[in-house]
Structure formats: C-alpha cells, structure tokens
Amino acid sequence: MTNWVIQTSGLTRTYKTQIAVNLLNLRVPEGTIYGFLGPNGAGKTTTIRMLLGLIRPTSGDIEIFRKSLAQNRMSILKKVGSLVESPSYYGHLSGFENLAVFARLLDVSDQRIREVLEIVRLTPAANKAVKGYSLGMKQRLGIASALLASPKLLILDEPTNGLDPAGIHEIRQLIIDMPRQHGISVLVSSHLLSEIEQMATWVGIINQGKLLFQDHIQALRQESQAELLIDVDRPQDALAILQREGFEVTMVDKSLVLKNIEYPEYAQVNKKLVLADIPVFRIREHAPSLEDIFLRLVGTGGSL
Ligand SMILES: Nc1ncnc2c1ncn2[C@@H]1O[C@H](COP(=O)(O)OP(=O)(O)OP(=O)(O)O)[C@@H](O)[C@H]1O
Q1: What's the 174 CA to ligand 1 centre distance in angstroms?
Q2: What residues are in contact with ligand 1 under a 6 Å CB criterion?
Q3: Whose CA is nearest to atom 30 of ligand 1?
Q4: Which CATH architecture is the domain 227-287 placed in?
Q5: Which of 23-32, 112-121, 157-166 has the lowest mean pLDDT?
Q6: Residue with the nearest Cα to atom 4 of ligand 1?
Q7: Which among 135, 138, 144 has a CA at the least distance from the CA of 103?
Q8: DSSP 94
Q9: Where do the structural domains in the chain lie, given as residue ranges?
Q10: 209 Cα: distance to centroid of ligand 1 (angstroms)
Q11: Where is the ABC transporter domain (predicted)?
C-alpha cells in the first residue's frame, strides 16, 4: 500500500466569485519528488498555502503524514520545511548568522546549522555577509533554513524562479538528492515542464484550479501513443487505400499520418502500399513530446 505524505480530498478555495482551487485530490507518495506543474495563475501557490496552513480551505480536507492538518496543525508543520516566497534576510549578517536567528526560534543547535549549510553547499560562504550572495545562493540559504528542523517533507514554491542556468542547476541537484540522501519527500511547483521533467518522479498537472493529471512521470510519457508518418508517391491514392483497409489515416502536408496504430501493423501498412504499386519513400514514427502532451492537457490557453 502506498504511503501518502500528502493526501487532499475535494480541496477547494474560492476568492469572492473566483474558484482558485477546485476539488483537488492530491496524492503525494512518500519518498518521491512530486512536481506540481501548471501555468501562471493555475492555483499552485494557493494550494501550497493551504498545505502549509497559511490560508484556510473553503472546503475539503488535507491530510499530511496521514493525519488531519486541521486537527494536528502544530505537530504536522514541525515536520514540514517550506520555501514559499523569496525569503528576506539580514543583509549585513552572514549566512550562518541568519540561520542562527531561525535556529534559536526552533531550538536547533549550531551543529545543525553547519550541517544544513553543507547540504546546500554554502559552507565556503557561511561567514560572508548575505548582501554579497547571488540570488541562487540566497535561494539555497532559504532551503537550508527550511531544512533546519530536520523535516520529513519539503514544500517548495517555484524555487528556481528568476535564477540563472547555473543557479537552476544547483537547486535542481539539491532537490534530487533530498529523498535518496536525506529521506525527505519533496513537493515542488513550477510552471516549466522542462524543470519538472528533470527532477520529478511524480507529477500533478493543475490548470484553472483543477487537477488534470496525476501519476508517475513515466505514465505521462505513455499518455499518448506514437503516430506513424508515411511519405509516398501519389499520397491521395495511398490515403484511399489505407482508409479502405480501415486505418485511421489523414493527410498533412502530403504526408500520411496514421493514429492509433500498433507497432506490428507498421509492416502491414508498408506491404499494402507496395502491393498497390505505390512507392514508399519514408516511414517514421512520431512520439509526441511531453510538451505536446502537456499542451493538449491544459488546452491552448496554458503557456509553458
Ligand atoms: N488573495 C487573492 N485574492 C484574490 N484572488 C487570488 C488571491 N490569490 C490568488 N488569487 C487568484 O487565484 C488564482 C490562482 O492563483 P495562484 O497564485 O494560486 O496561482 P499559481 O499557479 O501559483 O500562479 P503563479 O505561478 O502565477 O503564482 C489566480 O487567478 C489568482 O488571481
């Protein structure tokens, strides 16, 4: 049986007349990196704020670590680390000193500060003033701060927003290491499919407040079957022949496009055309990219 670290049932949040989050049934399995993907305004931040107890759901339930958040708020949130907005720091204090401020509140030792600085690879900059940190370093300090209390679950809202490619790479590596090296499950939101594709093992796609897809990332790839594209001499004749044979075929730019076709049928299609004396120039398979699938799921209105 799967152990869900987050399980929501009918989670809904409305703002006046607008439904920001609509009957969401999130399932985040333990030990995974769950990519929470959706275009701007889809409802990711609103969902995350509800998961962290920062705003109340209009209706629906949230269970974290198999306990009701409404009834066990403090004990649950103690074991959840988060990075929701770009954190603010004391610029004149060092990274270590900034973490020490939080550490005092959380009753966490200096040793733990050193550990989390090591995890986010900030040990060499630990004693430098934060005002001299790059945006990427500040974001890593934010993750260090989220890790201080040794959480079992990390919730990160668009942690790579605004970072340069090197900064994005560093954050991504950090996230990838979380379940394996530190036993921490991660929910990370993004509007970038490429981001999620590179780090998530599970994915939930949200658009206009609704969850459109939720499964293993491999299942997303299998969502859509490959099409077969065939270039022939006399495409009109070839189209008529294949339609007569019962194939689901259309013509696009003089290429024949066959849908819902199984791999063993590829050879049959070729044989039919050759026997009808139609020269076949090229047969190729086109598997839709994750981007194609994503756009199909969210419709043309969703930008990546
Ligand atoms: N405090 C609020 N008052 C009114 N409407 C809000 C409020 N917060 C969010 N919304 C609306 O709810 C919808 C979902 O917003 P949300 O910020 O959750 O989306 P998001 O997926 O996180 O997008 P983004 O990546 O742009 O932050 C949006 O249409 C937004 O305008």
Answers
A1: 27
A2: 15, 18, 20, 38, 40-46, 191
A3: 41
A4: 2-Layer Sandwich (3.30)
A5: 157-166
A6: 15
A7: 144
A8: B
A9: 4-222, 227-287
A10: 9
A11: 6-233
Query: What is the interface pTM, i.e. ipTM, of the complex?
Result: 0.95
Question: Per-residue pLDDT for 263 more than 90?
Answer: no
Alpha carbons 21 and 205: distance in angstroms, whole number: 13
pLDDT at residue 213 above 50?
A: yes
For atom 2 of ligand 1, the residue with the nearest CA is 15
DSSP 8-state class, residue 84: -
pLDDT for residue 192: 87
Q: What is the mean pLDDT of the chain?
A: 92
Strands 280-286 and 248-252: unpaired
Pick the CATH number of 4-222 from 3.40.50.1820, 3.10.105.10, 3.20.20.70, 3.40.50.300: 3.40.50.300
| Cα(54) to centroid(ligand 1), Å | 14
Distance between Cα 73 and ligand 1 center (Å): 23
Among 51-60, 120-129, 178-187, 293-302, name the one with the lowest average pLDDT: 293-302
Closest Cα partner for 190 from 75, 83, 74?
Answer: 83
Q: How far is the CA of 40 from the centre of ligand 1 (A)?
A: 8
